[in-house]
Specification:
With 175 residues, this protein is an alpha+beta fold. It has a domain at 2-23 and 75-174. It is 65% helix and 14% strand. It has 7 helices and 4 strands, in the order αββαβααααβα. Helix 4 packs antiparallel against helix 5. The chain is elongated and about 75 Å long. 31% of the residues are buried.
Length: 175
């Protein structure tokens, strides 16, 4: 019973990571004494391209003309999605080595691509708004990124430790 439950941990964590793509990943905010405008891009906006959710606050004359800058699909985010999906598929196979090691490698690669994507998007948005002064201070990483990264790294660690533990037991039996 425990083994079958343990086999579900990795695919469940990876599915939760994919669900977290719907949460905010990157936020751009601009504050003045008159108004504040915040724009959030979700993980799916980064994968498929999209416009942010814009939240204006303050004086209506300043906030009604807020631009919604569309972000194109990000290659690193697409690779993340492919690797995470491959990790889910591998986690459901019967072959132990393929299931554990293959899924761990794919999930680890997905985590790397997620980080690369976040850095590239952060830098790209900061460059785009460079004329506005402190551009780096205006771009923020949001909780959706951190939750997604946590679930993907958890799946990678779960599979890697399961693989290492099993190989350790096999080597002890052979002695």
């Amino acid at each position: 019973m425990i083994r079958s439950e343990r086999r579900l941990v990795s695919p469940a964590a990876l599915l939760l990571a994919l669900l977290c793509l719907g949460l905010p990943f990157v936020a751009v905010s601009c504050e003045s004494s008159v108004a504040t405008v915040s724009a959030d891009y979700s993980g799916w906006d980064l994968v498929a391209g999209g416009t942010p959710d814009v939240t204006p606050q303050g004086d209506d004359s300043f906030t009604k003309n807020t631009e919604r800058s569309e972000i194109p699909a990000q290659p690193a985010a697409i690779v993340f999605l492919v690797l995470a999906t491959a990790a889910i598929a591998l986690a459901r196979t019967r072959a132990f080595d393929l299931r554990t090691l293959g899924s761990a490698v794919c999930a680890g690669g997905a985590a790397v691509m997620l980080i690369v994507n976040q850095l590239r998007v952060h830098h790209g948005i900061a460059e785009e708004i460079q004329g506005n002064g402190l551009a780096e201070d205006m771009v923020h990483t949001r909780f959706g990124f951190w939750l997604t990264l946590l679930f993907v790294l958890g799946a990678a660690a779960c599979n890697a430790t399961t693989y290492a533990r099993r190989n350790s037991l096999v080597q002890q039996r052979q002695r």
